[in-house]
Amino acid sequence: MPLVINTNVQSLNAQRQLVKSGNDLSQAMERLSSGKRINTAADDAAGLSISNRMTSQVRGLNQAIRNANDGISLIQTAEGALDETTNILQRIRELSIQSSNGIYDDSNRKTLDAEVQQLKQELDRIAETTSFNGQKLLNGSLGDVTLQVGSAAGEFIDLRVGELSTNTLGAALDAGLSNTSRYYDVVVAGPTGITSGDITINGVAVGGTSSADDSSSTSFANVSSIALAAAINNVSDISGVEATVNATTMAGASMAAAGGVTGTFTINGVTTASVTTSADGANTRSAIVSAINAIALQTGVSAVDTGEDATGIRLVAEDGRNISIAASAAGLTGAETGLRLAAVPTGESLQIGSVTLLSVDGSDVTISGDASLTTATGFVAGAFSGELAQATSASHGGADTATTQLQAGDLVINGISIGGAKSTDDTASYQGKTGSAIGIVASINRVSEATGVTAEVTGTTITGQSNTTAATLGDTLDFDINGISIATVTSVGELSADRVALRDAINKISGQTGVVARDTGSGLELLAEDGRNISLESLVGNAFNFGLGDETGAADSQAFTDVITYGAVTLQSGKQIEITAGANGIAGLEGIGFREGTFGATESGQLLKDLSIATFEGAQEAIQAVDNALEKINAIRADLGAINNRLDFTTSNLMNVVENTAAARSRIMDADFAAETANLSRAQVLQQASQAMLAQANASTQQVLQLLSQ
After folding, report:
1. How many CA atoms lie within 13 A of 374 on its CB side?
2. Domain stop point among 541, 566, 591
3. Are 551 and 465 in contact (CB under 8 A)?
4. Is 264 helix (H, G, I), strand (E, B) or coil?
5. What stretch or stretches form a coiled coil here (predicted)?
6. Which of 169, 390, 665, 697 could form a disulfide with 629 if both were Cys (CB 3.0 to 4.6 A apart)?
7. Is residue 107 part of a domain?
8. In this structure, are 546 and 404 located in the same domain?
9. Could you tell me if residue 452 is left (phi over 0), alpha (psi between -120 and 50 degrees) or otherwise beta?
């Protein structure tokens, strides 16, 4: 090889090897000092990314294990309190049986009752003071407890205890789904009953209603809640759903009495004594209530003074029969009397009650039907829980006015007034935000802790009908949905083809409108699943011919201007749901799709708060009440025990996942000390050798000087 001095290749090579051995030595020392194979991303970029994901999982799972153990501690705290509650109830039951013995007189029973009253106070004290981490467990304020038992979002377990005081224990509650009661202002031909197929429950078609099933209602018995319940129960063996009849409630009217009007009222075919109204609303209500209640045994209807001019007089038929009422004088209006009287003087108005559907095995209840489902039955389509008390409002239509908006004073649930809806709660609807199902749900849920009721959107549906004859070839249809214009639809002269064309035009813009169209075979169904309002405007053409008319073809003649359909709302609770009108009167309540009444469940038995064994009868009732309370607590303890066991398995599984994930991470991240000490020794030897060879390479150019000196 040539002898040169400008480029010392041997020195450069030795330098490179020295740097490499130095890097190896530095890496081995870094790994041995840190214990990690990967100390920077440069060491193993992919491995660092994988190990960081594993670290997130391991740390998340470790926290989930702690969360699950916290949940177990909470459950054990509640279960311990319920154990004492059970012991107290057993003692009350023992005293009740003792008091039922005929050898005791009332004086002896009062002595026994004194202990019962003390034990009831202790039940309430336990319910009010049992807490975990500052949260009360048994007084109903806890609500749903969500235990995050995984390392990712959505990996949680819910548990609920509810209120277990004397205010809730004792009465047996059968929870179910109630429909909306229906009111008819002026009855001429009257409403018609359901026909076979109008409503389907759990896939089973319910047969038609018959007046033969209702011997109590004096008018329109074929459409009563009694007849509806009978039709549903005829197929309950197949559907797994039974219907019970709720009390029928006819809300009162807002009063502005002038006084001096005399007349009578005919209720369910029986006429009251003559009544004269007064300018004082309270006096008028008192006189009318007395007159109606005097014939209550004949009519099956009692009157209740609500105590307010805004809500007037409420009529109630406890057995669920229809309530029919008419006044004898034109001056006896709703404003004059506080009664829900027909708009036409001396006309007959009718209130049809509601029913509650009870799932036999606690499974969900699914309801479907044809276009007349809601108008004929008061139910809305959907799947509903079989374990909670539920009631639905009615989907309804109208312009965006004060009547259709939820305002403070419109709605009272379980004695709590619901505040007005806020337009900011509904970012989806195009119009009528404060009357939408979304806005109403938000307002109800703001006070759910006080009412014990939560609300959710059921959805907004418009069920259209087709004309019996097709549109003329070449006819067109245009309108706007939620502010967005559909593409012009041109008729091909065939009903089904025109419906399909309109369906496709609507669905093409569903991403903008939030509304999806479906061809039902007899018309088009428009659905907004998120509960936003459906606004139809600027109609040009004949909607009935394209499948969007109502049952009478009314959409034929309407211009769709400011026609808004508001969605339905489902209320859910662990107890009965009582709905009443607020200070704004019945118009405000019904304008948002609700009706007065008690819905969602049937109760039997006596609440413990009212329990007394001071009499033989009271002692007998107490035995049943305590049995109901024990059954409820046993069910809750069983659920808590099941969740406790589930959490035990959850923690065991999480620990297994943590162990194996940590092992996998270790193989990526942790340094192998045996290998790294060998690498260190090798790097040290190479480092010294490289230094020596570099010195030799640098000295090799000295040969040139020897050559020049000769």
Report:
1. 18
2. 566
3. yes
4. coil
5. 75-129
6. 169
7. yes
8. yes
9. left
User: Which has the higher per-residue pLDDT, 374 or 685?
Assistant: 685
Question: In the structure encoding, which two tokens stand for residue 173, read together?
Answer: 């509650």
**Would you call 335 helix, strand, or coil by DSSP?**
helix
The whole-number average pLDDT for the span 337-346 is: 83
433-452 per-position pLDDT tens digit: 888 889 999 999 999 888 88
At position 387, the amino acid (one-letter code) is: E
Question: Which single residue is written with the structure tokens 């428009």?
Answer: 526
End-to-end alpha-carbon separation of the chain, Å? 21
Residue among 178, 304, 143 at smallest CA distance from 578: 178
- Tell me the C-alpha distance between 491 and 485, whole Å: 18
DSSP string, 637-661: HHHHHHHHHHHHHHHHHHHHHHHHH
Q: Are strands 265-267 and 270-271 parallel, antiparallel or unpaired?
A: antiparallel
Using 50, 70 and 90 to split pLDDT, how confident is the model at 558? Answer: very low
| DSSP classification of residue 215 | S
Burial 567-593 (b: 16+ CB within 10 A, else e): bbbbbbbbbbbbbbbbbbbbebbbbbb
Last residue of a domain, one of 510, 538, 566: 566
Domain limits at 154? 49-171+608-661
Using 50, 70 and 90 to split pLDDT, how confident is the model at 51? confident
Tokens of 505: 């035009």
Residue 630 forms part of a structural domain: yes
Given a cut of 60, whether residue 561 has pLDDT beyond it is: no
Token output for 208: 């038609």
Provide the angle, in degrees to the nearest 10, between the axes of the packed helices 45-99 and 616-669.
170
Q: Is residue 127 within a helix (H) or strand (E), and if so which, with residue range?
A: helix 106-129
Mean pLDDT within 189-217: 84
Q: How far, in Å, CA of 561 to CA of 550, rounded? A: 16
In the 8-state DSSP scheme, what is residue 339?
A: S
48: amino acid identity, one letter: L
Distance in angstroms (rounded) separating the CA atoms of residues 169 and 626: 8
Using one digit for the tens of pLDDT, what is the confidence trace for 488-500? 889 888 888 988 9
The Cα 494–Cα 473 span in angstroms is 8
Same domain, 266 and 324: yes
Tell me the HSE value of 673 on the side-chain side, using a 13 A CA sphere. Answer: 4
* Sign of the dihedral defined by the CA atoms of residues 66, 68, 69, 75, in that order: positive
Sign of CA dihedral 614, 616, 617, 618: positive
Six token digits for residue 178: 């109630």
Task: Determine the pLDDT at residue 552.
Answer: 42
Structure tokens given for 342: 């027909």
Angle between helices 106-129 and 616-669 (to 10 degrees): 20
Number of folded domains in the chain?
3
Does residue 265 surpass a pLDDT of 90?
A: yes
Residue 460, beta-bridge partner list: 528
Burial (0-12, 13-18, 19+ Cβ within 10 Å), 516: middle
Distance of CA 262 to the CA centre of its chain: 48
In what helix (H) or strand (E) does residue 478 lie, and over which residues does it extend? strand 476-481
> Tokens standing for 54?
């594993």
CA atoms 321, 360, 193, 391: torsion sign: positive
